[in-house]
Amino acid sequence: GRRGGGGDAAEAVANGGRKAAQNGHGAANGAAGASASKAAVPSAKPASGGGWASSPVLEVLPYAVALWAAAATLWYQGWDLRPQQVSANKPYADFESFFPFYMTEHAVENNRRMHLVGTTLVVLLTLREPALILAASMGASVGYCLTPLLMGLDTGAVEGLAMVAVFLLATRKLTGRWSPGVAVLFLGYSWAWVGHFFIEQNKPASFIYPVYSLFGDFRMWFNVVTGRLAF
Predict the structure, then answer these.
(1) pLDDT, tens digit (0-9, with 9 covering 90-100), for 194-204
(2) Looking at residue 41, what DSSP letter applies?
(3) pLDDT tens, 37-57?
(4) Residue 231 lies in a domain
(5) Which is more confident, 78 or 96?
(6) Contact indicator for 122, 190 with CB cutoff of 8 Å
(7) DSSP class of 227
(8) Domain range enclosing 139
C-alpha cells in the first residue's frame, strides 16, 4: 500500500512538473511574440507641424513676394537701368517696344501655330500642377529685373539661365520633383524652336531677349484665344 501510494505521488509530482514546464515555455513564447509585435508596429507619434504651417508654398512665398515687388516697381517706375554701352543686338529698351519686332519674327502662320501648340500645352500642364504658376512667376521676375542690367551683353544667356534656374529650383521646392519644370521647358521651347528653325527659318528671339520673348509668346497666345489674331 505504501509503495503504491508513493508511486502515485511521485507520478503526480512529475506530471505537475511537466505541466509547469509547458506553461512556462508557452508564457515565454507569448512574451517573445508580444515583444516582436511591439517592435513591428511603429509608435504613433504626432507629426510635428503639418498643414499650412509646413507648406512649401509658405516657405517660398516671402521670396516670391520680394521678386514680384522688385519687378513691379521696375515696371511701374519705368526706370532705365541699362548700362551706358548697350549692345547693338539689344536695341529695345522694354517689352512694349520689343513686341512689334517679335511679331515680325513670327510672320509665318505655321510658325505661329507651332508656338500656340507649345504654349497651350504649357498652360494645360500648369493647370494640372498649379504650383508651376508660382515658380514661373518667380523665374520671370528674376529675368525681368536682370534684362535691363545686362543690355550690354550681346546675348540673353545670363538672364535666360537665371530665369530657368530659379524656375526649376522653385518647382523642385514646391512639388518635390524636377520633372514638371523640365516638362514645361521642353514643351514650350521645342515646339517654338521647330517653328523657327524649320518653318520660318530664323533664330528665336529668346536667344537675345529670353524674358521679353517669353512674354511675347503668351501675349500672342492670348491674342489668338481672344480673337484678336488669326490662328
Answers:
(1) 999 999 999 99
(2) S
(3) 444 444 444 444 444 445 898
(4) no
(5) 96
(6) no
(7) T
(8) 56-225
Helix, strand, coil % over all residues of the chain, rounded to 5: 75, 0, 25
User: What grid cell was written down for 189?
Assistant: 521651347
The one-letter code for the residue type at 7 is G
Higher pLDDT, 194 or 11: 194
The predicted pLDDT at position 49 comes to: 40
Grid coordinates belonging to 99: 513686341
Total domains present in the chain: 2
The pTM of this model reads: 0.75
Q: Quick one: cell of 70? A: 522688385
Confidence of residue 80 (pLDDT cuts 50, 70, 90): confident
Residue 209: what residue type? Answer: Y
On whether both 82 and 144 belong to a single domain, the answer is yes
Are residues 76 and 11 part of one domain? no
Residue 50 lies in a domain: no
Residue 135: HSE in the Cβ half-sphere, 13 Å Cα cutoff: 26
Domain shared by 172 and 112, yes or no: yes
Distance from C-alpha of 52 to C-alpha of 109, rounded to nearest angstrom: 46
85-122 confidence digits (pLDDT tens):
999 999 999 999 999 999 999 999 999 999 999 999 99
Q: 184 and 164, same structural domain? A: yes
Specify whether the CB–CB gap between 71 and 144 falls below 8 A: yes
Q: In terms of domains, do 130 and 76 share one?
A: yes
The answer to whether position 51 is within a domain reads no
